[in-house]
Amino acid sequence: MKKLFQAVSAVKYCLTASHRKGFGVQSPFVFHLLNHVFFEKGKYYCYDKIEAIRTKFLSDKKVVQLVDYGTGKSRSRTVADIARKSVKSKKYAQLLFRLVNFNHSRTILELGTSLGISTMYLASADFDSKVITMEGDPTLCKMARKTFKDNGFHNINVINGNIDSILAETVASVETLDFVFFDANHTKQATLNYFQTCLPKIHKNSIFVFDDIRWSADMWSAWNTIVEHPSVRLAIDVGGMGAVWFNTDLTKQQYVVAF
Ligand SMILES: C[S@@+](CC[C@H](N)C(=O)[O-])C[C@H]1O[C@@H](n2cnc3c(N)ncnc32)[C@H](O)[C@@H]1O
Predict the structure, then answer these.
(1) Is the CB of 118 within 6 Å of ligand 1?
(2) Is residue 120 part of a domain?
(3) Domain for residue 75, yes or no?
(4) pLDDT tens-digit profile of 130-154?
(5) Is any atom of ligand 1 closer than 6 Å to the C-beta of 94?
(6) What is the CATH number of the domain that holds 14?
(7) Fewer CB within 10 Å, N side or C side of the chain?
């Protein structure tokens, strides 16, 4: 059923997505965002460094035992399989880097670390920024911590625990949230709870990015509820992810962009 939803949703996205490079966009802010952030083609130093780490993971046949957060059961996977199936692709991970770079994020929160690929992109725009990343599986936490240490990422704090129960205290420990990447429990209820928990710490320039908005009917419904929320002023859907802005100077608008 999920596979069917994903296929239909991908076709609908291809048919509705437009505004590539800002054609037909009225808002100067969105025009700038599309041209200078979403479709920016610059080569940043961190791109090659992080992609080399991904390549190493992709050829690592070591088997690890992971806790499945849906069932609570333990299951074995190779590192290569995790890197192939559970980690954001280069295209989207590099967009995360450009978004944190764009709003000069200093306090960044990530829900769902896995091997830490997206985390390293989030941490690379400013090494004085503070990245908090949360992961439930202890083996993945250990691996991610080692990767960050071995590669000189000193601005990342990995928190091990069930995000559904420890997010509130983590959010309470920071003054504001400049950027949040939601990539953990992909159910509607959990996604909306995460969103509501993080909302009190937003400011005018905060950005929230939701992963896998077309992964299931549930996630699609969560995304649409978020877009409709009164505090959201701008929503940009790029197929695999959706980003929202809260700047009250903007009139409420929504774009589906062919990314
Ligand atoms: C898609 S992966 C994250 C990928 C990573 N952001 C990247 O792109 O490199 C999602 C992770 O969230 C973790 N996760 C899911 N639900 C969770 C929960 N309730 N608490 C803690 N971690 C959870 C899973 O263990 C998994 O490693």
Answers:
(1) yes
(2) yes
(3) no
(4) 999 999 999 999 999 999 999 999 9
(5) no
(6) 3.40.50.150
(7) N
